[in-house]
Structure to design on (281 residues):
């Protein structure tokens, strides 16, 4: 991956082999570029590149100039500001450190830091060329962004394919769990929960004891090595509420499933029962 990282040191630097800086596009150049992009789109270019087909753009950026882009990614370094424009380099496939992309955005005060995750919507400008540390020529797509939004790691590394709003609350002897929603990614399933200890003693719910049951399959919680969601607190004093996300392995979003939570109490006179949710897409 180092070979790609060193490709665009200085995004506003020319790519002809010299280190002479160039000025950001003048207004007339921007207008000309926008006019050309508009003409291409009007002539029938209806491509939109997302996570599903972005590899096709990376393979030949110049062939898709004027196409729309909607992608999440992770910055490789800090943005560079020049004139009225900010530029940054990002991986559009941060999970695999691939799909190197250079993004331009007309906001010189864009508040981004290195390694930030962003959602970019914009238009393909073509390709940018450079050399790696060994002198090999490499290319990457250039994108003129209409919007740049800061997002979280989960949205970039395992984007939500679909989600199910549940807002169900189930309880047992004063301890309750609200299943707010379930997000389905390709690699993980994320259950958003709110816990409420309405008992008179400390109560505990440990995420690793939760499970999803779908047909004859049990899906257990998983620790993602790529991102970490904020889990709910595990030990709750009387009257305490806590919210968070419990991450499981992949679940089929088109089939019914049950989500089950086990809890315990420091009041040993209480025999606790699992709290179960049945969800239907």
């Amino acid at each position: 991956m180092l070979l790609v990282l060193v490709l665009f040191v200085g995004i506003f630097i020319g790519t002809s082999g010299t280190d002479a800086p160039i000025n950001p596009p003048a207004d007339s150049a921007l207008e000309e570029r926008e006019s050309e992009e508009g003409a291409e789109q009007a002539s029938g270019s209806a491509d939109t590149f997302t996570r599903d087909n972005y590899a096709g753009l990376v393979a030949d950026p110049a062939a898709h100039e004027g196409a729309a882009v909607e992608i999440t990614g992770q910055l490789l370094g800090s943005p560079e500001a020049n004139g009225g424009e900010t530029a940054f380099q990002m991986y559009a496939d941060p999970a695999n450190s691939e799909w190197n992309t250079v993004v331009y955005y007309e906001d010189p005060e864009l508040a981004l830091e290195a390694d930030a995750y962003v959602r970019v919507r914009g238009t393909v400008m073509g390709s940018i060329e450079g050399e790696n540390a060994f002198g090999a020529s490499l290319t990457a797509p250039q994108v003129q962004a209409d919007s740049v939004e800061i997002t979280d790691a989960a949205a970039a590394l395992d984007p939500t394919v679909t989600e199910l709003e549940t807002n169900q609350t189930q309880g047992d002897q004063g301890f309750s769990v609200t299943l707010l929603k379930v997000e389905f990614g390709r690699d993980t399933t994320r259950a958003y929960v709110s816990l409420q200890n309405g008992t008179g003693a400390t109560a505990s719910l440990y995420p690793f004891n939760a499970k999803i049951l779908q047909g004859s399959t049990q899906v257990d919680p998983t620790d993602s090595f790529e991102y970490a969601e904020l889990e709910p607190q595990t030990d709750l004093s009387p009257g305490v509420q806590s919210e968070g996300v419990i991450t499981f392995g992949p679940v089929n979003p088109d089939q019914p499933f049950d989500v089950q939570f086990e809890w315990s109490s420091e009041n040993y006179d209480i025999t606790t029962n699992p709290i179960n949710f049945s969800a239907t897409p």
